[in-house]
Amino acid sequence: MSFDFLNSEALFSDPYPVFARLRKEAPVHFYEATQEFLVTRYDDCRIVGSNDKVFGPAATEGRPEFRVMGTPNVLTMSGERHQSLRKGIDAIVDQPHVRSYVDELTRPVLQRFLDELKPRGEANLTTDLFEPVSVRCVGDALGFTETPLENLYEWFYAMADGLALGAGAPLPDPQAVWDRLERTNADINKHFGKLYEDCLAKPRPRAITNHIIYGGMPEGQVRSFEELLPTMRVIFLGGFQEPGHAAANAATGLLMDAEQRRAMLDAPDEHALKAFDEGLRWIAPIGVTPRVANADFELNGVTIPAGSTVAIVMSSANRDETRFDDPDRFDMFRKKKPHLTFGFRPHFCSGHFLSRAMGEIIMTEVFRQLPNIRLDPDKNVVASGWRFRGVKELPVKWDA
Hints:
CATH 1.10.630.10; globular
């Protein structure tokens, strides 16, 4: 059987036809380019993701995640140490806490960007609105209120390019990617170092970072700067990206469908969360989570040897035709079924309540405040990536 269809160019351009063939022909397949087994069916992803005794966190030194974020981090930890760290993170991003601060966090930032955009009548909604609002709000929630937006942007994009390069992205100058990442890490150290010292001098209970420093620790003890740095990089990469790209993906789905666009324009409050959730399924912003097999394991007739890296391809599982009807279609009215975008316990995404709450606000106000918003017929919508995927260019117009 030929697997010429499985290559980096196809994956980064549009991975979904590739995933569909893999689900049909080779649902568990070793991909030479990234040296990992790709697991693409919904049920198989659930088997791997829920079996943390056999499939543990991926902390392999040769993995791109190791070079970009460092270890140990919240994704590579397990056991009591992981539980303690998650206790600190989850304490401020659970549903009751998120509800108490998400409006104050999101609405002023969103409104500032919307007010700047309204007179223009057109924009790339991803880069002009969704991304900056997401990065600024999550940065503020973490406590980086004094760090310029441009710096936060650079952290996210430098790390994202590093991971993309490790996943086979056809980037023209690999060394430039790693040089950029080195500069970025120095800047992260500078700004996070200041915030860390500020929190030690005077705890900031409203900042997520403060809870990560103190939460789950014995009385009088704190986590060290060096211990927290890899986890903070994970949070920067996932947290800055997910609300913005999920909103862009959902908005794209809505604007490409006349009936759903009209429904959203008529009643944004009613449909915003449904649309955002469907966007998370339709194009998962974070589409892959890696695991390492601790023992030989047979799945769909394929033996995964102990020590192998396994890629749980959530973005493929979310379009499994045995799980979802007409899975390639964005449909906010579809019968609700759980998708796998936020991963699996014990590493289920800590920020899922915050992401969804921010997304609901953003989607509501965009379709409320930009009259007759529609795709620009003279420009193309552009999405890219497979481990991290989003609509990067979303050209729209509205009645200014």
